[in-house]
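Shipment paperwork, digital attachment
Item: protein structure file
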Amino acid sequence: MAFDDRSRQATKLDEISGRFDPVLLAISLALVGLGVVMVASSSIAIAEGLDVGPFYFLTKHLMFLAVGAALAWALMQVELKTVEKHSHLLLAMCFVMLALVFLPGIGHTVNGAKRWINLGVSNFQVVEAVKLMLIIWLASYLVRYRDEIAVRWMALIKPLGVAGGIVAILLVQPDFGSAALILAVTGGMVFLGGARIQHLAVMAALAFPALAAIAVAAPYRVARLKSFLDPWADPFDDGFQLTQALIAIGRGEWFGVGLGGSVQKLFYLPEAHTDFIFSVTAEELGFAGSMLIISLFAAFTWRAFNIGRRAIDMRRHFAGFCAFGVGLWVSLQSFVSIGVNLGLLPTKGLTLPLISSGGSSVLMTCVAIGLLLRVSYELDRAERQVARLRGDAGPAGDAGEGGLDMPTPPQSPAALAPAATGPRGSRARIEPKIGALA
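Attachment content:
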């Protein structure tokens, strides 16, 4: 009878489904909608100047959004345990795809940079896919080594070494902006995974001189740094991009000159529909429009981290670290892109996620949001199952990586004593603290 009761209870639990986080979905759709409007406004003059039709970039943007939405929906149907099982394959694909850009006939070079592969119908910037695949592998790694990363140097060095290998390839392409972003996301994830801040500080101190040397090794990076420090010293050459961006932002004042009324996008501001779309938005929608974009990204980051924290609380560590990784990626990239437009950071070729016109970036950001929505779905399902267990059979265990623990009988005082940290794969674990400080 007890076995039959358990079977019926398990069947009832299997019938419970979750829901995708409505707040996260609403924020994402708001960013997408604002992006479509601003791409249409900022790209018409550029498209006509290239004689490709006024809505060429808008049509391309909508096509990539549609493909990205389809891929996101497909990923939203896949169980996270299946994604986690293939994390090592995804890591291998990172290095394979980064190597493909150097192969003649496959790699595509633009302005001396080898960052794209030719897919026939379009070029694809592989680092956008690498960001997401690396986040998935890092999440899997942090689950497997979450007891060791705070106490063993090798457990910390391995993910940083993998990220360092990817960064080395990116610097050869060259792509310093994406390299710095990947290092920041990796450092943030291992910190949230329990790495001691003192250890990370030591690693950063060792890596910083090398990165600084690489940054000043290229003359164009030195010129960007000088123009960042004083863009008005040479406003018609090295400081042209930043000065035009600042003029656009200044013209917007409180409520902007009106949608479509930007002057700077008319061949004054380079890359007005991609890297500097925030400046066009500030000119046309003013301070109010700028704060709307910043608020939406802040809300997205808050929601992603909220989902990640709840997943960790439910002992769904892989899901939680995936949410943290996507939140770090989108928040840091948006921070850098907006910071460049405002003159707070040196010029980097990073787009504003979901807002800038683009192919690879839009596509993979949609896929990343699909992964985050899948995390929210499985988290909501687990919470509903725990609520059902508690309602049917009293206190229930937490939800683990593969599902839920069934209610357990009372244990002896000895069994309830704190468990010691065990080796990888053991059941005796101390749950990791997010960002261990000591």
